[in-house]
Amino acid sequence: MNSYSIQLTRCGTMALLTTLTSLASAQETNVPTPPPSPTPPALTTTETTTSVEPETTPVVLGASDEPVIDTATTQSSVPNRPLLITGSIFLVGSYGASAIVGAISDRSADEKLFYPVVGPWMDLSDRGCDTRSCSNETVNKVLLIGSGVGQGLGALGMLLSIVIPEKTTQNWYLVGNNELVVAPQLGANMTGLAAFGSF
Asked: Taking a C-beta distance cutoff of 8 angstroms, is the pair 93, 179 a contact?
């Protein structure tokens, strides 16, 4: 073990002992108990005198009163950014390729490729092979189907990103065993470490 790790271990041990000492001294402080509530005046009758006293029951802390430590914090947010970005990439990428083909092609049916999502399907239905020679049409049809599917999945992903929230989980690491647990503490106007255990 090098000197840095020894110093780090000593600092960590001192910090833990200081925390435990302050917790132990906080538990030992004597807090003045409030005065007992006054008893109501005695009720008198002609035959007997009766007084009413409040019942006091001892408070017993059981195993169910121990603190519950949640080691993960989950947050939801809309829009779902990974789904929105993935859908945008699919839609823009496949639409961009289709629009370029529609701009440089001399076929009149390819002008429909300027319409996003529905353009490839409209072009596929109106190829015009009966009036014009259609060499390499199998490859063109496969590319049109791929572009239509890509644009459709991209648009669907973008719409679903508004409906499906993004969930982010932040994990916390707990230090200790069954007798002592040291964990981060977050809350309104408080941050730091909390120690739970039986002393």
From this structure: no
